[in-house]
Write a structure and sequence with these properties.
By secondary structure, the protein is an alpha+beta fold. 46% of the residues lie in helices and 10% in strands. The protein has three domains: 66 residues, lambda repressor-like DNA-binding domains (434 Repressor (Amino-terminal Domain)); 137 residues, 2-Layer Sandwich (Beta-Lactamase); 62 residues, no CATH class. It is built from 13 helices and five strands.
C-alpha cells in the first residue's frame, strides 16, 4: 500500500523525501528541530528530503520515531525507501494474530452484562459482546442507520438516527467525542479515509439554534461554543441514555495494546462501558 497523499504534495521529490517532508511539516518541525529529535544533522535531513541522499534503515527508523509516525504509515515509508516492511501486515483475522483476537473476544465477553466493542483506526466496530449487539441492533436497522458492511462507532454516536437521539446530555457527549476524533486526526493527518469520516461527523454536530452546515469551520465553531459551557459536575464523562425500555448512566473506558508492534494491534481500541450508579447496574444486569 502507498500513502495516498505522499506522491502529489511535492511532485518533484522522490516519494520517501516527499513523505518525510510532509510528516515534518504536519508536526510543525523545522529541519533543525527534527535533527535534534532524530540525532541526525539538519544537512542530512535536507539531503534526504530533496533526494540528494537515500536514508539508511537506521536513519529512517530514527526519523519515524522523532516524527511519531504510526506503524502502518511507517511500513509505507520504508517501502517507499526500498526496504521491507519492518512491522507485520497481519490483520486480526490472520492466524498470526489469532492469540490476540481470542484475547480481545475474551475481554469483551467477560465485560457482560455491560456494553463493550472493539474498534479499528477508522472507528469501525470489529467485534462486540452480546450485550452491545443486542442494544445497538435498534440503531443499525431499516429506518435507522442503514447498515454498512461494518458498523461504525462514530457514526453510531453522531448520525441523526443514532445514539444522540437518546442521549440526554448529547452536547457534552458530542464535544468529548468530536475533540477525540480531532486529536486522532492530528496524530495521523495522512489518513485520508479518517479525515473524510471526521468531516462527516462534523456535518452532524449541529443542534437547534447552531450552525449545522457541517465542514471544518462549523466543527471549530461548535467546539468553541461547547467549550464556553459550564463543565459537568461529573468527574468523568457520563453517557446518560434514555430509551423506551431503560434509562442508564454509563462511564466509558478505553483499552489498548501497550507497545504494539503490529499496525492492526496498535490501531485497535476496546471501548468498555460501566454503570455509573447502582440503579443502572441493577437495570442492566436484569436486561442483559
Amino acid at each position: 500500500m502507498h500513502a495516498p497523499a505522499a506522491t502529489h504534495i511535492v511532485e518533484d521529490l522522490p516519494p520517501v523525501g516527499a513523505m518525510l517532508r510532509q510528516w515534518r511539516k504536519h508536526r510543525g518541525l523545522s529541519q533543525m528541530d527534527l535533527s535534534f529529535e532524530a540525532d541526525l544533522s539538519a544537512r542530512h535531513i535536507s539531503f534526504l528530503e530533496t533526494g540528494r541522499s537515500q536514508p539508511s534503515r537506521r536513519a529512517l527508523g530514527a526519523l519515524a520515531d522523532a516524527l511519531r509516525i504510526p506503524l502502518r504509515e511507517r511500513n509505507e515509508l520504508f517501502e517507499a525507501a526500498g526496504f521491507a516492511h519492518p512491522y507485520s501486515d497481519a490483520t486480526l483475522s490472520d492466524s498470526e494474530l489469532a492469540f490476540h483476537y481470542d484475547l480481545v473476544r475474551s475481554v469483551l465477553a467477560r465485560h457482560e452484562p455491560w456494553f463493550a466493542v472493539a474498534i479499528d483506526r477508522h472507528w469501525n466496530i470489529r467485534m462486540m459482546n452480546a450485550a452491545a449487539e443486542q442494544f445497538l441492533a435498534q440503531f443499525f436497522c431499516e429506518g435507522g442507520i442503514e447498515p454498512p458492511l461494518t458498523p461504525n462507532l462514530a457514526r453510531l454516536l453522531f448520525h441523526p438516527a443514532g445514539l444522540r437521539t437518546c442521549l440526554l446530555n448529547w452536547p457534552d457527549v458530542r464535544t468529548h467525542f468530536m475533540e477525540r476524533l480531532s486529536r486522532e486526526l492530528i496524530r495521523n493527518p495522512m489518513d485520508a479515509e479518517f479525515a473524510v469520516l471526521v468531516d462527516e461527523m462534523a456535518s452532524y454536530v449541529g443542534v437547534p439554534g447552531e450552525d449545522s452546515s457541517g465542514g471544518r469551520d462549523s466543527r471549530r465553531g461548535a467546539r468553541r461554543r461547547d467549550s464556553a459551557r459550564p463543565a459537568s459536575e461529573d468527574l468523568a464523562l457520563v453517557l446518560h441514555l434514555s430509551t423506551g425500555d431503560m434509562e442508564a448512566r454509563l462511564i466509558g473506558t478505553v483499552m489498548a495494546f501497550d507497545s504494539a508492534r503490529s499496525p492492526a494491534l496498535e490501531e485497535l481500541r476496546i471501548e468498555t462501558f460501566f454503570p455509573a450508579d447502582e440503579a443502572t447496574r441493577m437495570q442492566m444486569e436484569s436486561a442483559f
